[in-house]
Amino acid sequence: MTLPLARNIYFTGFMASGKSRIGSLTAASLGWKFFDIDKLIEEKTGKTIPRIFAEDGEPAFRRMEVEALREVGGQGPMVASLGGGTLINPEAIELIRRNGVLVGLHASPEVILERVNRKKESRPLLANLDDESKMAKIKEMLELRKPLYQLADLHFESDEKIPHHVLTRRIIHRLQVDELKPLTVELAERSYPIYVEENLAGHLDSIAAKAGCPQRFLIVTDQNLKSHQKRMLEQLRSCLGDCRIFFFKSGEEEKSLKSLNKLFTFMLRHSYPRKTTLVAFGGGVTGDMVGFAAAVYLRGIDFIQAPTTLLSMVDSSVGGKTAVNHPLGKNLIGAFYQPKAVAISLETLSTLPPLEFLSGMAEVVKYGVIRDPEFFAFLEENTEAILAKRPDLMRQVVLRSCAIKAEVVGKDERETAEGGRAILNYGHTFGHAFEVLGGYGAIPHGLAVALGMRVAARLAVSLGMLTAADEKRQNDLLDKLGMPKHFPRKLDENKAWDAMGLDKKVDDGSRVYILPKRIGEVVPVRDVPKETVLQALAVARESKGP
Amino acid sequence: MTLPLARNIYFTGFMASGKSRIGSLTAASLGWKFFDIDKLIEEKTGKTIPRIFAEDGEPAFRRMEVEALREVGGQGPMVASLGGGTLINPEAIELIRRNGVLVGLHASPEVILERVNRKKESRPLLANLDDESKMAKIKEMLELRKPLYQLADLHFESDEKIPHHVLTRRIIHRLQVDELKPLTVELAERSYPIYVEENLAGHLDSIAAKAGCPQRFLIVTDQNLKSHQKRMLEQLRSCLGDCRIFFFKSGEEEKSLKSLNKLFTFMLRHSYPRKTTLVAFGGGVTGDMVGFAAAVYLRGIDFIQAPTTLLSMVDSSVGGKTAVNHPLGKNLIGAFYQPKAVAISLETLSTLPPLEFLSGMAEVVKYGVIRDPEFFAFLEENTEAILAKRPDLMRQVVLRSCAIKAEVVGKDERETAEGGRAILNYGHTFGHAFEVLGGYGAIPHGLAVALGMRVAARLAVSLGMLTAADEKRQNDLLDKLGMPKHFPRKLDENKAWDAMGLDKKVDDGSRVYILPKRIGEVVPVRDVPKETVLQALAVARESKGP
Fold first, then answer.
1. Which of A188, A459, A495, B216 is the most buried (most CB within 10 A)?
2. Is residue A2 part of a domain?
């Protein structure tokens, strides 16, 4: 409910579709004024609508409607329920669209008949008819009015199965989501939005609806979050219709086909159909696994990323690289499979442990170096406030990082273009070696990447590609953020060389390095002599002191 | 080598690229005549080329070349090697293209220099130069001639690493493959060809090359085929550069994530890179598993289907549905992932056990019923010859079945359109129940489908959609082929109803039946009363006798 909503809301729909009831509840819930256009006209003229029709004629009534719309429209933000035929008049539609959103409520003929009979008030059009004739009349009129109601910007079912307060909440949340301006990862029919807000846990159903996802959900998360994100997890569950939650055991070593199979067994036992939306709530491991599960369960179902760590917000949640580990290496079994949406709630950052925050910041600095000198300067200028996680700055940090990643991924979805998606690997080739040498988990991914960026910059300087001043600038920022300057153990450069190779060997045999030319630009470089690389690696070695 | 080749072959390339050597070997291998255009002109004129240039000028020489091309072109099929500058003349290109294919041979400047120095014969352009000047000259001329050589229809590297006979075979096979007219599954950038020939085992490298697949191969097959298809497997292996073969254990129960993981471990141990082509050689189980392995190994690599059973030829190899089983059901974990090509060698059918052949024929009949009355009539008319596996008829049977499947899949790749790909499930909903009730493996898939088609037709008749005459026509053909008329055990229709439901429950809750309206057309039908379905199921029950 923290999201802003600025436009007037107009409800349209057939008689007894719930326009007035849902309209007034919506207004109450928002603390806005509510107007029933028909009633307003009746009050103003002191005549009932049938009398106006009879005495003044329909054209006169339509003019009164426009008059009323003009009047209430200026008193916004407000909610109004329209008459059954208001939209016949193009002038009315234009007035509504000018600063409002048109919400259509739909009910089946059976529900309408039931409601009409229940209420005391007369419905002149259906007066004095038996049920069968009423039903015939309702169906006839529904068919006739259908094109009008189709004009609505949003459509909601209003039947007895959904409690009014739930429907009201759903409408408000959907309207709020519609007013957000997400980033987009442009991938033709696989494009998707990235939302970055304070807290989106209560809006995930609306984000899913807008993205065209099925409304049957399963949240998949990590056992650690049961306590660490208890409140948000509950919010999420409640928003998603009290759906089930599946918990993975925590840790990189659980990122396996075996853990995945446990999820499949759970889903099959509970008969989750193809029309299911998985929600990945957690860090990178959870996101990668849930994405891969979505890619292969019944040959592919929808999923949404709801990352809870800085690293997963700015890196793994965006881009569709999903995978599990194999005993012989990380992320070797997987798929390129895009989420339907990414919903980032910055609030989760407040409880993030310092080392995990730092790990994410390494990737953030990386975006500056590979692509965006202005962003890099912004990080330099605001280092302290960022370390204090000042919300407005964190928002910018995450937004800009995601925007850069979205741009790179949009141009090279499957990492096939030379100098395409591979530039995101800046610092990663060396970082990978540090992770392997440290033993996975000993040195956090982001910190290994930061160290890898130092090595890459040094290599670039020694190849004459980068100035020493730019190397220093990168390293100063890393220092200021508190990134490690050295590999925490004894470093054997030759072992690092071997550890580094694995990923690349799997790729095509020759070693490619992503190296900076300046702050804001990196390029792939091949065939660097081993000696030169070993020398660059030495910058990560603990110095012997003065 | 059994594939036809009709066009003249013209070799072009820089000096010492091997035009004459490879050209004459190609001709010898095909039993065709060979002409060296330069030599032909020298013989005719009694002058050396340099002398013709000097005395008559280049324009005269170019006219002589055209003359020679016209003369040899009429003596085809033949192979000719062109002079280094023949393609300068557009008239020559036109003559070549008229009934021939232009093959470009390419060698690096280093290889060219080495060859030039090795040979005694004088290369006037390079005479009296030291190695450095020769190299500079070669590079300069290569750059100059590049646009000419790029005119070739096909390009081959001709270096010392590839033995001449291997290169010759590769060229011939590639030309043969180019003359084949495969079916195409039209899926935009995922489109792929289906080749149907007697034996393609020796041409798979060329099919892969034409499809743009990496030339590093791994054959994956089923342990049973080690003996059953020993000869073809060896042919395949030899054609694919003596690549490794990975054997899955045989049987539906081995179609699991666990078996898949064994393949991954094997591939990772041997460092198969992203640029690997998997070749699935075997039946449906192998094809489904290899396809899924290709979909997720390093997030997706190329694969080719080389099916060895009738069922997999006409069904699972085409369409990109890949999967493994889960203890809770068949094919529940998988991906839509298209092969780069399907290569069907009809020869494998000759050793196929009768029951497996029959199982495939059930799907064949299905194609007639769902889409093609003419094909159905063809099957009726040729039943006996088909049962005798007459090669020309089997070719038509497989081609037409694949064509229908390709058409249906092309319109609805991911089975999302109403009445799209789902029509391929004709007979399968009921068939599935029979498979479950029988215990998987007890009743072969195709035979269960045939029985399911009988039930579906009866249901259609009882709903007034299909004439009894058309039902009889379908069943008569099934009878004539020797398909079972009844479920081989005691049939409990209520249990069948429950067994049938599972797949659909997983899909969206309501039961959809694919039912025939006539021979050649089926439609999806929803909400059929349970009683009506149970009655139709009773046709599969063993009759009590008279």
1. A459
2. no
Residues of B at the A interface, defined by Cβ within 8 angstroms: 257, 261, 264-265, 268-269, 271-275, 292, 295-300, 321-323, 326-329, 332-336, 414, 505-509
Contact call for residues B481 and B389 (beta carbons, < 8 A): no
Are residues A205 and A124 located together in one domain of the fold? no
Strand partners, B220: B246, B280
Q: What is the CATH number of the domain that holds A505?
A: 1.20.1090.10
Known catalytic membership, residue B405: yes
- pLDDT tier for residue B119 given thresholds of 50, 70 and 90: confident
- Euclidean distance between CA atoms A351 and B118, whole angstroms: 74
Which of A292, A299, A498 best probes binding to B when mutated, by most B CB atoms within 10 angstroms?
A: A299
Mutate to test the interface with A, among B261, B301, B333, B507 (most CBs of A within 10 A): B333
Q: Which residues, at least 6 apart from B55, have a Cβ–Cβ distance to it below 8 Å?
A: B47
Q: Are residues A271 and A148 in the same domain?
A: no
Domain boundary among B111, B143, B178: B178
**What ipTM was assigned to the predicted interfaces of this complex?**
0.90
Report d(CA A333, CA A322) in Å as an integer. Answer: 9
Whether B412 and B458 map to the same domain: the answer is yes
Instruction: Please report, for the domain that includes residue B268, its CATH number.
Output: 3.40.50.1970
Domain identity same for B332 and B235: yes
Q: What is the Cα–Cα distance from B387 to B478, expressed in whole angstroms?
A: 12
Note the pLDDT of residue B436.
87
- B359 in any annotated domain: no
Q: Are residues B225 and B334 in the same domain?
A: yes
B36 and B116 belong to one structural domain:
yes
pLDDT in tens, B501-530: 655 444 455 788 999 999 999 999 988 999
Q: Which of B52, B53, B63, B56 is nearest to B91 (CA)?
A: B63
Would you say residue B247 lies in a domain? Answer: yes
* Of A274 and B123, more confident: A274
Residue B508: the pLDDT is 52
Q: Is residue B371 part of a domain?
A: no
Give CA torsion, residues B272, B277, B283, B284, to 10 deg. 90
Q: Give the position of tokens 């590979």.
A: A370
Q: What is the CATH number of the domain that holds B124?
A: 3.40.50.300
Distance, in Å, from the CA atom of B228 to the CA atom of B281, rounded to the nearest integer, reads: 12
Q: How far apart are CA A64 and CA A69, in angstroms?
A: 9
Whether the pLDDT of residue A1 is over 50: the answer is no
Are A161 and A250 found together in one domain? Answer: no
A215: domain range? 181-351
pLDDT higher than threshold 60 for residue A54? yes
Average pLDDT value for chain A: 92
DSSP string, A249-295: PSSGGG-SHHHHHHHHHHHHHTT--SS-EEEEEESHHHHHHHHHHHH
Residues A138, A243 share a domain: no
Cα A65 from chain centroid (whole Å):
40
Q: Do B271 and A508 touch (CB under 8 A)?
A: no
Number of domains in chain A: 3
Contact B92, B65 (CB under 8 A): yes
Joined together, the tokens standing for residue B144 give 């100059």
pLDDT of res. A216: 96
- Pick the last residue of a domain from A311, A332, A351: A351
- Quick one: pLDDT at residue A2? 64
Q: Express the helix, strand and coil content of chain A in percent, nearest 5 each.
A: 55, 15, 30
Beta carbons of B508 and A268 less than 8 Å apart:
no
pLDDT at A162: 86
Count the neighbouring beta carbons within 10 Å of the beta carbon of residue B355: 11
- The 3-state DSSP class for residue A476 equals helix
B347-388 pLDDT, tens digit each = 999 999 999 999 999 999 999 999 999 999 999 999 999 999
